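Ticket opened by: R.M.
Priority: normal
Category: complex prediction / small molecule

The reporter submitted a protein together with zinc ion and asked that the result be attached to this ticket for the collaborator who will pick it up next week. Submitted input follows.
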Amino acid sequence: MSLLDQPATDIPRRKKLVSKSPYLAALQRRHFLLFDIVPNLMALLVVPYHIFVAPVRVSDVVVFFLLWAVTGLGVTVGYHRLFTHRAFAAPASVRALLAFCGALAGQGPVISWAAIHRRHHELSDEPGDPHSPNLHGQTGIGRLKGLLHAHYTWMIEHDYPNVAHYTPDLLKDRAIAGPSRHYYAIALGGLFVPGLLCGLLAWQWQAAVSGILWGGFLRMAVLGHTIWAINSLLHRFGECPFATGDHSHNAGFVSLLTFGEAWHNNHHAFPTSAKFGLRRGWSDPGWWTVCLLTRLGLASDVRQPPDSVIDRRLCEGRGP
Ligand SMILES: [Zn+2]
Ligand SMILES: [Zn+2]
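Result attached by the on-call engineer:
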């Protein structure tokens, strides 16, 4: 019997993998404005503020590095290795905490982030990849447009992956329901609350303003560009020790600044590995955090490829 002969109710409905609508586009544009444009513009005020209003304080630097580390690890250990790739398991309290820390980064709610990233791995550098820099042609202008798209402009408005298809496991995880539902409050709170605390501790409005600039806007802008550079620059430039069938690259010299995410070719070769810096000496702060959680009994079932498999894949050849 052909499909045409079947009663309408018997015809299997093909699942939509992505959707697009004016409502979704409005949400995406609002998110882009709040967490991708405003922090960049506000970060530009840091230098004039300190020249014309008040000097840099120790509390500014402390709150910047503290929140940069907390949010960076929230994204790489929580959003990326745990929730997207299931590279280890963790109890509900740790899952909730990592989802909260990731939400502070302003990179989107955990379920959306994971769905978009799983689609990126599924279609890496092929049509449908949400943020490939390699799909705009090989002319100079096309290559520049690709980099700009992958780094920044894809977020203005994009296909939204069907979360029922891409992240059914996360939709069932009650531990992350709170951080996911209250994402906007968490991300906006992360911009202002630490700075306000600095102001209260010093009892000076200047301390509050500079704390908000450093711990909120500058921190969010710096981490944002770091993550976006993985999508853009590391799908174009760097080392390719593994043949992955896409254009993912490593840039080990910035592995510390990216919490280990700069081992992006390694990651595309072994996406479910909790360890991105696969060799001794390949620094990977995200992996160190997973090891610490394991020692504390807060992580288990940690996945990483055996050395023999890594060696074999290295011998099989390099990427483009
Ligand atoms: Zn990638
Ligand atoms: Zn990934």
